Amino acid sequence: MRIDVITIFPDYLAPLDLSLPGKAQRAGLLEVVVHDLRDWTQDRHRTVDDTPYGGGAGMVMRPEPWGAALDAVCRDDSVVIVPTPSGIPFTQGHAESLSSASHLVFCCGRYEGIDQRVVDEANDRWTVQELSLGDFVLNGGEVAALAMTEAIVRLIPGFMGNPESLSEESHAGEGLLEYPVYTKPSSWRGREVPDVLLSGHHGQIAAWRREEALRRTRERRPDLAP
Ligand code: ADE
Predict the structure, then answer these.
(1) Atom 4 of ligand 1, residue of closest alpha carbon
(2) Taking the alpha carbons of 20, 17, 32, 36 in that order, is the dihedral positive or negative?
(3) Does the Cβ of 134 fall within 6 Å of ligand 1?
(4) What is the pLDDT of residues 134-170, one digit of tens each?
(5) 6: helix, coil or strand?
(6) In what side-by-side order are the strands of the sheet with 2-7?
(7) Residue 142: per-residue pLDDT
(8) Whole-angstrom Cα distance, residue 179 to residue 2?
(9) 20 to 30 A from 105, CA-CA: which of 81, 130, 140, 173?
(10) What separation in Å is there between the alpha carbon of 140 and the centre of ligand 1?
(11) Residue 46 DSSP SS3
């Protein structure tokens, strides 16, 4: 997989060379290239924004540098991802389907967003997804692009050491939140690991975990509960 990220703050994306995405790059499963949007400006001040038509607060990103950047970076097989609080909520389902894409292009907007014509034109030429990380507002798309990249990259086939842990975790499979987990020591500060987990009885352990997953899901995310 190749991922291109277009941003006015390339340094924000430095963590992509660390941790999981860094490991995937070294393993040859992933290539990440971060671009400075200002490289596609034409004026002396390398301007990327201007005031909104119709008035109102804040600034909007001008279409010309974005158009030139996408012309240079996109290929026939590109999926263009625009992180925005006005997008569709990003889910594990998006992460799963995007993990088999060959080319992702993240367009990180700042200010009040990118001129909509950029997104509309990209939509005519490639696949575009406007995705939100959640119901809160970040200052720009960079942190959202980082989070989405991590969620996607760890699902690339051959990437995770233990693929079984992918099928049991929260939001995978049945869509329940994950059950609570414990490790040694069995007694810590007067708190005990639940007896059933020490019993060696696999059937009872599985039943307990499912019950706990259900209880958590009903309590914390009733919208996901069966
Ligand atoms: N950019 C700003 N806020 C965002 C959010 N909540 N999700 C994705 N991109 C964003």
Answers:
(1) 85
(2) positive
(3) yes
(4) 999 999 999 999 999 999 999 998 877 666 667 667 7
(5) strand
(6) 31-36, 2-7, 103-107, 78-89, 127-132
(7) 98
(8) 34
(9) 173
(10) 6
(11) coil
190 forms bridges with which residues in the sheet?
none
User: DSSP characters for 48-98?
Assistant: -EEPPTT--SS-EE-HHHHHHHHHHH--TTEEEEEEEEEEEEP-HHHHHHH
Query: What percent of the chain stands above pLDDT 70?
Result: 97
- The verdict on whether omega for the bond into residue 65 sits within 30 degrees of 0, i.e. cis, is no
Calculate what percentage of the chain has a pLDDT beyond 90: 86
- Assess contact for 145 and 105: CB atoms under 8 A: no
| Binding site as annotated, residues | 109, 133-138
**Ligand 1 contact, 84 CB (< 6 A):** yes
Q: Which residues contact 219 (CB under 8 A, 6 or more apart)?
A: none
pTM of the model: 0.94
The pLDDT tens digits for 42-53 are 999 999 999 999
pLDDT of 71-105, one tens digit each? 999 999 999 999 999 999 999 999 999 999 999 99
Strand partners, 78: 103
All structural domains of the chain: 2-161 (3.40.1280.10), 164-224 (1.10.1270.20)
Task: Report whether residue 141 contacts ligand 1, using a CB cutoff of 6 Å.
Answer: yes
